[in-house]
């Protein structure tokens, strides 16, 4: 089968289209023919080993797992003898998580992984673009006690996690203010934001004491102004929270101001994907797709995502249905 491999950390050019053997499912696994995948910011960081700590997880000198790719949609081609919940020809979508490997024509996953049946009302491309942003936003919004009537500021509202956060916060009944640049204002309003702050013309420092939750989905919000934008006992949710000085400032803020600063890594759960599936069916969550690339153009897709300017997701078309 065709797969994208990388043998060294580096620029987009390290990603190479190659032929590898097709995997065979074990007793509890399903073999999925991948129709679409995505390039996420996580894929870019893993490819570059940025931050350096990536090397401790993926292999110090060379990446041990040679095929990247987290999200997928596809069709079940074979099932192991003990598989109970899937059958051949089921259309599915999900996340391979830290197993990676969705930049390939086939992947084998245990049936209990974060996989769900693809809703009929969405395309394979849309289905591939659900879990990274959707499950991350869901995890953090729940930590921030999202609820009806709460006021939330989503910083980076036009990105993958940002567009998911805006839609899910609206679903939970919150009043949503999105922060983005001029070119994304229309998009952020179209996915349901009640208000939009254009960060090229306005500043969140102008909104003290205004929000129950500030959710930074891109690691760009100014720490002090974000804390000040929170009401008493508010939550500052940070997807990118690795700088030790900022982690310390977060702990100090919690102790002295009663405002909680939360970082960490989102946990992807089967319950979460089933939750999102219902919203996909009802149309309350619609994945935003910026661009699509064929798998042969994976390096160009990585270059684009690396600009940090994509809107929603970048989809990789791996195969066509029926071919
Ligand atoms: N902690 C976790 O578990 C977890 C999970 C998933 C992702 N993450 C991390 O979260 C980050 C975001 O991921 P993503 O895939 O959602 O990113 P993304 O889609 O690549 O984000 C791109 C968006 O960020 C916006 N942006 C760039 N600079 C900005 C700024 N100064 N202010 C406001 N918006 C800005 C861009 O809009 P403009 O061009 O309009 O500025 C663009 O639409 C990544 O670093 C990823 O590694 C963490």
Structure description:
With 323 residues, the protein is α/β, with parallel strands linked by helices. Helices cover 28% and strands 26% of the residues. The chain folds into two domains: 2-130 and 288-317, Quinone Oxidoreductase, Chain A, domain 1; 132-262, 3-Layer(aba) Sandwich (Rossmann fold), CATH 3.40.50.720. The protein has ten helices and 15 strands. The strands form three sheets. Strands 3, 4, 5, 6, 7, 14 and 15 form a seven-stranded mixed beta sheet that branches. Helix 5 (160-171) links the parallel strand 8 and strand 9 (175-180). The radius of gyration is 20 Å and the shape is globular. The mean pLDDT is 97. NADP nicotinamide-adenine-dinucleotide phosphate binds at residues 40-42, 45, 133, 136, 155-156, 158-162, 179-181, 183-184, 199, 217-220, 239-240, 265-266, 308-311.
Question: Brief overview, please?
Answer:
By secondary structure, the protein is α/β, with parallel strands linked by helices. Helix content is 28%, strand content 26%.
């Amino acid at each position: 089968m065709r797969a994208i491999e990388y043998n060294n950390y580096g620029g987009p050019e390290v990603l190479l289209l190659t032929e590898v053997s097709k995997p065979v499912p074990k007793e509890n696994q399903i073999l999925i023919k991948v129709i679409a995948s995505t390039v996420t910011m996580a894929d870019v960081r893993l490819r570059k080993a940025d931050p350096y700590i990536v090397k401790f997880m993926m292999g110090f000198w060379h990446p041990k797992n040679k095929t990247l790719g987290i999200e997928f949609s596809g069709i079940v081609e074979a099932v192991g003898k003990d598989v109970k919940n899937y059958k051949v020809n089921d259309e599915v979508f999900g996340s391979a998580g830290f197993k990676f490997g969705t930049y390939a024509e086939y992947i084998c996953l245990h049936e209990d992984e974060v996989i769900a049946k693809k809703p009929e009302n969405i395309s394979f491309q849309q289905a591939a673009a659900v879990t990274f942003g959707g499950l991350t936003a869901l995890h953090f919004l729940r930590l921030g006690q999202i609820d009806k009537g709460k006021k939330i500021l989503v910083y980076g509202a036009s990105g993958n996690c940002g567009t998911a956060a805006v839609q899910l916060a609206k679903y939970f009944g919150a009043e949503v203010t999105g922060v983005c640049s001029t070119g994304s204002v229309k998009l952020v309003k179209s996915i349901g934001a009640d208000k939009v702050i254009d960060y090229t013309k306005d500043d969140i420092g102008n909104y003290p004491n205004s929000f129950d939750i500030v959710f930074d989905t891109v690691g760009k919000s100014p720490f002090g102004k974000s804390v000040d934008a929170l009401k008493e006992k508010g939550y500052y949710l940070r997807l990118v929270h690795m700088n030790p000085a900022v982690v310390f400032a977060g702990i100090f803020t919690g102790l002295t101001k009663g405002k909680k600063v939360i970082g960490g890594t989102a946990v992807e759960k089967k319950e979460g994907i089933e939750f999102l599936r219902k919203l996909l069916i009802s149309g309350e969550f619609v994945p935003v797709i910026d661009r699509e690339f064929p798998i042969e153009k994976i390096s160009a897709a990585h270059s684009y995502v690396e600009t940090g300017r994509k809107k929603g997701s970048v989809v990789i078309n791996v195969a066509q249905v029926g071919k």
